[in-house]
């Protein structure tokens, strides 16, 4: 038998965090990406803000003018408004769009968090929680020793290993489902 991984607070925390990543990775990624988007949000260009204010004022003036009674003045303001709208479109086209930046942030966040989760999963792969008779879950014993696919020989031959990750994943998943059902039942 190989030497077993000693249980320490660091290992227990690593197992719990890796299982939590596996259960709620979508929620974690969304929260971190939203936080990063607020940090890296660019302020609007002052020229764009100024043009938007001018357009807003011109629209107010156009609403006050009657197109039938003051034909020349109305269409003069209308041409000014069209010119300002064109300038605004040109300025906004030159600026990098917010959507592409948000997609880049979300993609990078997803990659970094998933890589971190994989590294953590690799770290906890050798941690065995306990051993159970191997005929209980046969032929699916490999599922209860995940992420150590082939096992790490910490149990005698007639026993199967239950990894710390599998135990923590099951506990967190069941706890989360129970909590959400209980919480939703109270809301109704």
From TrEMBL:
One protein family per Pfam: CHD5
Location of the protein in the cell: Endoplasmic reticulum membrane
Gene Ontology CC, one term: endoplasmic reticulum membrane
UniProt GO BP: tail-anchored membrane protein insertion into ER membrane
Coiled-coil region: 74-101
Recorded topology in the membrane: Multi-pass membrane protein
UniProt key word Coiled coil: yes
A molecular function GO annotation: protein-membrane adaptor activity
Chief location bin: endoplasmic reticulum
Keywords recorded for this protein, A-Z: Coiled coil, Endoplasmic reticulum, Membrane, Transmembrane, Transmembrane helix
InterPro entries, alphabetized: Get1 (IPR028945), Helix_hairpin_bin_sf (IPR029012)
TM helices/strands, residue ranges: 12-36
The family this protein is said to belong to: Belongs to the WRB/GET1 family.
Name listed for the protein in its UniProt record: Guided entry of tail-anchored proteins factor 1
């Amino acid at each position: 038998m190989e030497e077993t991984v000693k249980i320490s607070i660091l290992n227990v925390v690593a197992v719990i965090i890796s299982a939590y990543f596996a259960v709620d990775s979508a929620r974690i990624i969304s929260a971190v990406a939203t936080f990063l988007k607020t940090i890296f949000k660019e302020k609007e260009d002052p020229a764009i803000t100024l043009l938007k204010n001018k357009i807003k004022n011109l629209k107010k003036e156009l609403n006050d003018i009657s197109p039938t009674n003051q034909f020349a003045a109305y269409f003069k303001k209308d041409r000014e408004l069209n010119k300002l709208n064109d300038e605004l479109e040109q300025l906004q086209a030159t600026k990098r769009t917010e959507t592409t930046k948000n997609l880049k942030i979300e993609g990078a966040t997803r990659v970094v968090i998933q890589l971190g989760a994989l590294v953590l999963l690799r770290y906890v792969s050798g941690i065995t929680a306990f051993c159970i008779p191997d005929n209980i879950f046969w032929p699916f014993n490999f599922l209860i020793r995940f992420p150590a696919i082939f096992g790490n020989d910490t149990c005698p031959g007639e026993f199967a290993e239950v990894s710390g990750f599998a135990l923590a994943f099951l506990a967190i998943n069941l706890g989360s489902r129970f909590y959400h059902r209980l919480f939703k039942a109270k809301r109704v």
